[in-house]
Amino acid sequence: MQTLLQLENLSVIYQDEYMVAIHKPAGLLVHRSPIDKQETQFAVQLTEGIIGQKVFPIHRLDKATSGLLLFALDATTARNLSDQFMNHTIQKTYLAICRGWATESGHIEHALKYKRDKIAEKMKREQLEPQSAETAYKNLATTSVNHTIGRYEQQRYSLLELKPRTGRKHQLRRHMNHIVHPIIGDTKYGDRHHNHFFSEWLGQHRLYLAATQLQFLHPKTSEPILLECHLENSFQHALNKLKL
């Protein structure tokens, strides 16, 4: 059942002879990871099966995040696109449902401590200092729901457009928690009471964060490229219920 569901939700958005972009469903890893040894399905292998050729990962999306994921189809293109990511010339856009009513727009500049993993554990201590991180956001819509949580009888939520200027691990999730507007469904940095409410109310559990756009220069022609990605049905279902 899981295989059928993920294959159904994974779709090719764009493809030419240099690169391919897919919609990655929430819950699917980009590639094998020592953190999730029990997983048997990965976006890399599924995409290769669909298009019939090897792909080169350029960037990552968290397992819980859905949306636009770009792969190169050769090593030269991979280097070009990786350089664009490293130089922050690729513009990434996400949508997120967050707790509370955020301001109309804002810019978050908050350094994030390096997240240790098996690779980081081997690095020198001075390489693990907090890294600069920047995120711009725009409040697209707000809503409220009549439901008691704690001493509040009505709950407020915002639909935010997020544009990370840097690419730190869990940057958007950590930044939104930092400004006290955590993303709904975030089990690590979010609010468990609101996460539980959404799970019970909607009959589904997911992180309400989706990669929706990528803007960059074509690795061969240098022409501007804008790729857009639809929202997963579970994300759209939440927006419909919230009337956002």
TrEMBL record:
Catalytic activity: uridine(65) in tRNA = pseudouridine(65) in tRNA
Function: Responsible for synthesis of pseudouridine from uracil-65 in transfer RNAs.
Pfam families cross-referenced by the UniProt entry: PseudoU_synth_2
Residue ranges occupied by any Pseudouridine synthase RsuA/RluA-like domain in the UniProt entry: 19-178
Catalytic activity, EC: 5.4.99.26
InterPro entries per the UniProt record, alphabetical: PsdUridine_synth_cat_dom_sf, PsdUridine_synth_RluA-like_CS, PsdUridine_synth_RsuA/RluA, RluA_PseudoU_synthase
Enzyme class: isomerase
Name of this protein: tRNA pseudouridine synthase C
Organism for this UniProt entry: Thiomicrorhabdus lithotrophica
SUPFAM superfamilies: Pseudouridine synthase
UniProt keyword list: Isomerase, tRNA processing
Superkingdom to which the source organism belongs: Bacteria
